[in-house]
Design a protein that fits this description.
Blueprint: H1 15-24, E1 28-32, H2 49-55, E2 63-68, E3 86-92, E4 98-102, E5 109-111, E6 114-116, H3 124-132, E7 139-142, E8 145-153, E9 157-159, E10 167-169, H4 172-178, E11 184-188, E12 191-193
Parallel strand pairs: 8-11
Antiparallel strand pairs: 1-2, 1-3, 2-7, 3-8, 4-7, 5-6, 9-10, 11-12
């Protein structure tokens, strides 16, 4: 079991252990557009403004994320493995960057504009369970992170509050144009590519 870090009394895996899990399971840690934000009030939650806000560093206090694989489903309602098709690939800066991990919704809340999660001790076995035991999507609570790029999965739909309940299609070229300077990775046909 991991030992507690200096700033947290709860044990967390080392960043290298999380990286080893992500590589071994061929997964990415993604904050999707349209997911609960926990960022400053008055900010547009429509794509791409919501992800640009995160890219600008305004959500370092906490975000809801999912760990996804190339074979996951990103369309439909009941079967999808993530609440979104386009998101930011995140990396942890410290062990305490990982606040919570679960195979389903974690019951987070927003307090003073920051997304909070119930305090949780985390072991590598919890990372495994978040993927192996998920019913649809899993949730990881992440703070103090680095953005490594943008992930776009077919059918490349995005959510907008202008017409709630409807997804609007985009494509990888439009995603690249929305995030200049960021590498864009796609998932299609069970493989990832740049």
């Amino acid at each position: 079991m991991p030992s507690p870090t200096a700033s947290s009394p709860l044990p967390k895996p080392a960043v290298a252990e999380v990286h080893a899990f992500l590589r071994r399971r061929n997964t990415l840690l993604i904050h999707f557009s349209g997911c609960p934000k926990g960022v400053s009030s008055g900010v547009s939650h429509d794509y791409p403004d919501d992800l640009r806000h995160v890219l600008a560093g305004h959500a370092q206090g906490g975000l809801s994320c999912s760990v996804v694989t190339p074979t996951d489903i990103f369309h439909g309602f009941g079967d999808r493995n993530a609440f979104g098709c386009i998101g930011l690939i995140l990396d942890l800066n410290t062990p305490d960057s990982l606040m919570a991990v679960g195979p389903h919704d974690l019951g987070s809340w927003v307090e003073n504009g920051v997304r909070r999660f119930p305090p949780q001790a985390i072991a590598v076995a919890d990372l495994e369970a978040s993927l192996d035991q998920r019913v649809s999507h899993n949730e990881w609570g992440v703070r103090d992170f680095t953005v490594r790029g943008v992930m776009a999965a077919a059918p490349f739909d995005v959510w907008t509050s202008k017409d709630p309940g409807f997804d609007y299609p985009t494509n990888p070229a439009e995603v690249s144009a929305a995030f200049p300077g960021q590498p864009v990775y796609t998932i299609a046909g069970g493989a990832t590519g740049a």
